[in-house]
Amino acid sequence: MKEAIHQFGGLVWHITRKYLRDRTAAEDTVQEIFTEIWQKAGRFEPSLSSPNTFVGMIARRRAIDCLRRQSRQPVFEPIDEAPLAAASSPSPANESVPGDPDAAMNALKELPDETRNLFELHFRLGLTHGEIAEKTGLPLGTVKTRLRRGLIALRDRMSARTPTIEPAS
């Protein structure tokens, strides 16, 4: 591995920095790139490309993947402290759940046991989708689908319980 880093380090670093301006993200990506090179070294076919091309393609693809991940992350702006003081005072407008505070718990009880178990693992224990799949033995796609459908069902049940206010005529 040391030889690969010595031989291709400059190439990988150059490609990564071309796509990623953040030095920390670039360093993390370089590590991912060399891990992938190590894992895929057996797939290298000298008759199809040179070692530089093989490494360069992996580096380019990983750098672009990192760039895409970064673009999907929200940009946080500093919060002005004055509105926070006003928002902390209790008022009906600041309620996060309109109407009966037990409505969410009652709606949750109506969901199937398997969905409630997934909610418990995800929302209460903070497990990721992948961790839930590993723990339950369910496929990752099934975990994601059941959580999403459960959230939709919960939203529908909550909106059915929330009385609508008709405008005065």
Q: Describe it for me?
A:
- The chain is mostly helical.
- The chain folds into two domains: 2-72, Rna Polymerase Sigma Factor, Chain: A (Orthogonal Bundle), CATH 1.10.1740; 100-161, Arc Repressor Mutant, subunit A, CATH 1.10.10.10.
- Helices cover 67% and strands 0% of the residues.
- It contains eight helices and no strands.
- The chain has helices spanning 2-19, 23-40, 51-72, 81-87, 103-109, 113-124, 129-136, 140-161.
- α1 crosses α2 and α6 packs across α8 (140-161).
Q: Encode the helix/strand succession as letters.
A: HHHHHHHH
User: Approximately how much helix is present in the residues?
Assistant: 55-70%
List low-confidence stretches.
89-97
Q: Output the structural class.
A: mainly alpha
What number of structural domains do the residues give?
Answer: 2
Q: What's the story with the biggest beta sheet?
A: none
Do you know the CATH topology of the largest domain? Rna Polymerase Sigma Factor, Chain: A
- Give the N-to-C terminal Cα separation: 77 Å
Let me know the CATH homologous superfamily of the largest domain. RNA polymerase sigma factor, region 2, helix turn helix motif
- Our count of helices gives 8
Overall CATH class of the largest domain: Mainly Alpha
Average pLDDT over all residues = 81
Q: What spatial form do the alpha-carbon principal axes imply?
A: elongated
Shape-level CATH architecture of the largest domain: Orthogonal Bundle
Instruction: Please provide the count of β strands.
Output: 0
Rg over CA atoms, rounded to whole Å, is: 25 Å
Strand content: under 5%
